[in-house]
Design a protein that fits this description.
single chain; 530 residues; alpha/beta; 2 domains; 5-stranded mixed β-sheet; 24 helices
């Protein structure tokens, strides 16, 4: 109860600050404008190969929670996967899906409500950033401008407009940054507990949060505040979190530590390069330069917020050298608040020594990454409106991953579970999660007809996008040629790059029961084959 009272008192004090109320209104208006004009509310889960998997996984959690009294989870989830085969629980931790699934128990599941949840999480990030930046004793106008810079960074715009784990990961990491700052300001068992709970929350959302793991040790060492921490709690809470996170990862990777290390790209099991230069794409050279100046202030000021920011950046950079899982710019999103806070500290140091500091700040803004992130509907909903649901259908794409958006859109349009959706990359071929190890199961038109008849497919949806480099997928053009030329199938719908074919003649080949394979097919994949 004491903790809740303290939280209420803290929130009341924050809300009494008129400048914060103005700032949060500006941040919220800017965030929703970027979402709306960027097409986030009309998009169809095709902005990234992983987006549909995150959406369907959250939908599974929501539908399971709504099934009270709850049935046995594994058989229920396997049956759900048979209907909507884009479930990724196990490939990623379940934290994001639990939050979004619970959100959808209150609000109707769909794109709009998912974006509203994103908006709330984004405002949470900006609130924590505002609270942290105010510790630097800078003008409110400058802090507000820094918040705007954070919001308009391309990687943050994308996170705000996609159903992906990056935004909740950013929120958890920013909360961790706040808790690490508070630990230095108010040493004690309660502050230590909050730090390690924040770190666990980050791990529960995304594995790349491993980059935060060394930050508490670094922050306590740099600030010297380890001397003021209770010794027992300083070792107890890290041990508890390490055990829980270890068990989570052990479950996630099916008890294979070697598989976990390989998937993470941990040296020496990988030949992947060190992607440290992606920090330039993340925030730009100007912010990195000012952040470097901010690092210099640590040695004589030892401000908790600057120390915590430096500790997180160093922890991420060192971890990324040994764990090469940071393959895309979005994987570094947790560093955006600490880098901008370090840049603010660097600007303060520069402004105390040079009248040219505002000109340098203008140059930094000019050199930061500039892009307006925009999405457009892919035609999935328009095609789904032309066909009859529920149906037993196969979806195929020239890119492989475009099967996912169709599954997500269909699932939203019916009482779940209803339709049975088969993926061509599972029924007609086999691949791992990332599209590697491709192997076609069909080589002739007769093979296609036999597979479709055996699975009792009555609707085929084909998507033609940009072909992948290499020799695959060979099953997709063969499928297209077969259904276009066969009297068994007739075109019954079309939208943008999507075409639907409905069955006209009864199956000629015998039915083959579907089975769910629990062989991870990489990590966390479940496949269906006839």
């Amino acid at each position: 109860m004491g903790g809740l009272v303290a939280v209420k008192r803290y929130v009341r004090g924050l809300w009494s600050d008129r400048s914060y109320r103005i700032a949060v209104a500006v941040f919220g208006l800017l965030a929703v404008s970027l979402q709306y004009f960027g097409g986030a509310y009309q998009a169809e889960y095709n902005s990234h190969p992983d987006e549909a998997a995150h959406f369907v996984s959250s939908l599974l959690v929501r539908d399971y929670l709504a099934e009270f009294p709850w049935p046995s989870p594994v058989p229920w989830a396997l049956d759900y996967y048979l209907h909507y085969p884009k479930v990724a629980i196990g490939h990623w931790p379940p934290g994001y899906y639990a939050v979004q699934g619970a959100w959808w128990l209150v609000f109707p599941p769909g794109r709009e409500s998912a974006m509203v949840l994103n908006l709330l999480m984004g405002v949470g990030v900006m609130t924590l950033f505002w609270v942290l930046a105010r510790r630097l004793d800078l003008s409110r106008l400058l802090i507000g401008g820094a918040g705007v810079v954070l919001l308009v960074l391309p990687v943050v715009q994308e996170a705000m407009s996609q159903v992906m784990a990056e935004l909740p990961s950013l929120l958890a990491a920013t909360f961790f940054l706040w808790s690490l700052t508070r630990l230095q300001e108010n040493p004690g068992q309660q502050s230590l507990m909050v730090v390690w709970l924040a770190l666990f929350a980050a791990f529960a959302v995304k594995q790349t949060s491993v980059g935060l793991a060394a930050a508490p040790v670094l922050a306590l060492a740099i600030s010297g505040s380890w001397r003021r921490q209770p010794r027992g709690a300083m070792f107890l809470w890290p041990a508890v979190v390490a055990v829980v996170v270890g068990l989570l990862l052990y479950w996630q990777y099916s008890g294979s530590i070697l598989e976990m290390l390989r998937w993470a790209g941990a040296t020496p099991w990988t030949k992947m390069g060190w992607n440290i230069l992606q920090l330039r794409d993340l925030v730009g050279d100007g912010i990195l330069g000012l952040a470097a100046a901010g690092v210099l202030t640590v040695w004589w000021r030892r401000e908790p917020v600057v120390v915590a920011s430096l500790a997180i950046v160093v922890s991420f950079v060192v971890c990324s050298y040994y764990v090469r899982a940071f393959r895309e710019t979005r994987h570094w999103i947790a560093l955006t608040p600490p880098l901008i806070l370090l840049a603010l500290a660097g600007y303060r140091w520069l402004s105390e020594r040079s009248r040219w500091a505002p000109a340098v700040l203008l140059a930094v803004v000019v050199w930061m990454p500039h892009a307006f992130y925009r999405q457009t509907p892919g035609g999935y909903g328009a095609l789904a409106a032309q066909i009859r649901q529920p149906a037993r259908m196969l979806v195929s794409s020239s890119t492989g991953w475009e099967e996912g958006p169709w599954i997500a859109v269909v699932a939203l349009r019916e009482a779940r579970p209803s339709s049975v959706i088969l993926r061509a990359t599972k029924l007609l071929a086999s691949t791992d999660w990332n599209g590697r190890k491709y192997q076609a199961k069909v080589h002739t038109r007769e093979d296609i007809e036999r597979a479709l008849d055996g699975a009792r497919v009555d609707l085929v949806v084909v998507h033609d996008g940009d072909d992948l480099a290499g020799d695959w997928p060979t099953h997709h053009p063969l499928l297209k040629d077969t259904v276009a030329a066969s009297a068994t199938w007739r075109k019954c719908g079309e939208s943008q790059s999507l075409t639907a074919y409905c069955r006209q003649l009864p199956p000629r080949y015998p039915r083959v029961p579907l089975r769910i394979e629990l062989d991870r097919l990489g990590v966390g994949a479940i496949g269906e084959t006839p």
